[in-house]
Amino acid sequence: MAEPVVIQSQADHVSSPSSRGSSSTPAPDPAFVENLMLQVRDLEQQVAEQRGLVEELNYQIQILQQEQKERYVDLDQRLLNMQQQLDIQAVAPAEREVSSSLSEGAVSDEEVLAEYNAARELIRNRDFPGAITALSEFAQSHPNHELTPNAWYWLGEVHLVSRQVSQAQAAFEAVVDDYEDHAKVPDSLYKLGVIAQQQERGSQATQLFNRVISEYPGSQSAKLAQARLDSN
């Protein structure tokens, strides 16, 4: 006699609740999650603080760079004032010599001196366009006069103040090339070095500053050139 066929119901294939629970992932510990979140917030705070510190340091560097630039500008301005006083002192003996002579040549020298003083007065009055015209005319009209190197130098200074750098460079080069024994040569060499430095021609600027120091030791321009080299 054949054995009876056993038919299983659908319920027989379903796992019991106890078997299902044994294979599921346990819930995370709330305290552990909270601790991780606190650590993340601490790290975010540290990153924000570091970022703020970097921004503050960058700002301080910008301030220091600006202060250094202002010190150089102030130093150049004081040198400019000193050179003006030296020019006035240098002109005074020439005025006395002119006044002591009654020759026709002395009268001509007196007129030349008046032209130069008029041009310098325009600088003191900050009439830079007028000063550029007057100094250019003086230098062209009196190429061999003892005050002509001074005129070229001050022409360079006025061009530099007026941000006409190429014209300023040409004026300073005229002093160096055409009046190599004049007292304005070291000042002109220094200014050429400043222009080269501003135009990021570092090697040429260093060469010019070193030339001032080696050829005119002890001069005010040599001290300024050394300060420029030390700041790099």
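^ that was protein a. below is b, sequence first then the tokens
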Amino acid sequence: MISQAITPRELDRRREQLVDLQRYLADQEREYVDLRARVQGFIDRYVAALGPLYMELDALESQLYCAMRYLHEALARNGLDTRGPDSPKATAMPQLLVLPAGAPLPPEPEGGLIQVGPPPLKTLYRRAAKRLHPDLAPDDAERSRRERKMAEVNEAYAASDRARLESLLLAAGESMVKVRGGDADAVMEWLRSTERAVQGRLRVVQAHIALLTNHQMHALGESVERAEKKGLDPLGIMANRLRAQITERRQELYIGQRLQPESSMAEAFLRQRQQRMGGGIAASR
């Protein structure tokens, strides 16, 4: 096993860098929270001011669709080649993605960095002999077990099988530090895994900040705020436009529900409605 050496000075430097990275991550998370709160605040205002009007408009569009569908089918039975109306789609209210919770960071190895190098193979052999020598057995059964283990120790030492010697010593109760040296490997792995975790979380947070910054409600909210500072009422203007559309749809619905398919006005109404909605109607045969 090759140990990944790290000095106390290097460990302190890497730990300081990690603390700086975590501090920057915390700043970015606060920026995300603040930005999301501002955008969500405007969305709440937007939905409160315009949501009921959009719902009313969507309901009228649905009723108009039914009236147009009836006229389309009736005209088709009378030999008029028409294009059926498109199904209306409900207006979706703006929503924001939620930043997922971050995973807990891996725990730092206890005790910090222990500066003990891995012992040589001969030292491992001697420690194994002290722990497993048959002469130290309290009874015959234990002696037999120790003889088998010492045979394994001798074979591993003769084959320079360090991994096997370490395994036998650890199974016999020897401490990890005395078998494999200090915990530099564990400390290095903790540093790397923690750095990767923090950097990964930082990328996720920054991606969500970018999504919020580019969200249409963010741009609209800033435009509304600038207009309101000038004494304007942009949300009120939007609401009035929706009310005008609602009035227009009510008039169309009133006419559409009362037209008879045999009337020449039915074809003209359907044609006008289809053209305004982006569709079309073929000429009468």
